[in-house]
Design brief:
It is a single chain. The chain is elongated, with a radius of gyration of 38 Å. The strands form two sheets. It has a six-stranded antiparallel sheet, with no helix packed on it. Strands 7, 8, 9, 10, 11 and 12 form a six-stranded mixed sheet that branches. It has helices spanning 2-24, 99-102, 123-140, 149-158, 171-178, 260-270; strands at 27-31, 36-44, 48-53, 59-63, 67-71, 77-79, 105-108, 112-114, 145-146, 182-206, 217-240, 245-252. Helices cover 27% and strands 35% of the residues. It has 279 residues and is an alpha+beta fold. Residues 206-218 have a biased composition (Basic and acidic residues).
Length: 279
């Protein structure tokens, strides 16, 4: 009698546990945005599903286009949309250059342009200032081999780098990538300051008989000239492939024309470690 009673109690406990487990089981909806919803899928339509959260009674509509997959309480999985692959970190650019192959080579990066004139913030202007600097390094320095802009910029493009994103790399890694011992970072701050108009007036006299100015006819001519004024500051920093800063300087240009940066670059480059006027 006692054995039968224990057997009945055991069967009841197993049945209760099975019932609770069935109640605890839930459908799991995996959303494309990474969110997970647990509850019960009550209906699947052409464009949406009906869903009730665990412990609630309210029925929700969820668009299929927002769902990655559903794992039902039975264990079956239904895929609606492929989950976007997690972005992979971009590998750091790798260069096969050696210290010996980089010896005495110098590269000038595209200049970072700063201006209140959007026309001067262009890639073309950045490249123009870069080329001016390269030409000045070739003319006004000794003992360094200056890399062409085409080569430098091609390597940068192949590695998805521009004047802004290259700041995320250590200078020594930039040097290794470009295959040079020295890297020149440059900033051109060219602020538009407005225009100025100046005029000139002249008076002459004409007398066909005796050229007496008092009796002659008065001829007056006027002319005016409008100039555009800029305030220019150039910054240069030269870093070696060991990460050491060899030269860092800023200078406000002398003059107010747009091409003031040319003379300012020449002044600074002549006074760099290999410049013809270095101290």
């Amino acid at each position: 009698m006692r054995t039968k009673l224990l057997l009945c109690l055991f069967i009841a406990l197993v049945g209760l546990n099975t019932n609770l487990s069935a109640q605890d089981a839930a459908d799991v909806v995996y959303m494309l945005n990474g969110e997970t919803k647990k509850g019960k899928v009550t209906a699947v339509h052409e464009d949406n599903i009906e869903f009730i959260y665990s412990g609630e009674d309210l029925n929700y509509d969820i668009k299929k286009s927002e769902i990655a997959k559903i794992t039902f309480s039975s264990g079956r999985t239904q895929v609606f949309n492929e989950q976007p692959a997690a972005p992979t970190a971009m590998a750091a650019p790798v260069s096969a250059t050696t210290a010996a192959s980089r010896k005495n080579k110098l590269a000038v990066l595209p200049f970072v342009m700063v201006s209140n004139d959007q026309g001067l913030m262009s890639e073309a202007m950045s490249g123009q200032v870069q080329q001016t600097a390269i030409n000045s390094f070739k003319k006004n320095t000794n003992q360094v081999i200056v890399q062409e802009a085409m080569t430098t910029n091609a390597i940068l493009l192949q590695n998805g780098l521009d004047p802004t994103s290259i700041k995320t790399m250590l200078p020594k890694d930039v040097a290794s990538l470009l295959g040079v011992e020295f890297v020149v970072y440059g900033t051109a701050n060219i602020e538009f300051e407005g225009t100025r108009t100046s005029g000139l007036s002249s008076t002459t006299y004409k007398n066909d008989k005796d050229k007496d100015k008092r009796k002659g006819r008065e001829l007056t001519s006027n002319s005016s000239t409008t100039t555009t004024n800029y305030d220019t500051t150039i910054g240069l920093t030269i870093v070696s492939d060991t990460g050491s800063t060899l030269y860092s300087v800023n200078r406000n240009g002398f003059g107010s024309s747009l091409d003031t940066y040319e003379g300012t670059l020449s002044y600074l480059i002549k006074r760099c470690p290999w410049g013809t006027k270095r101290k």
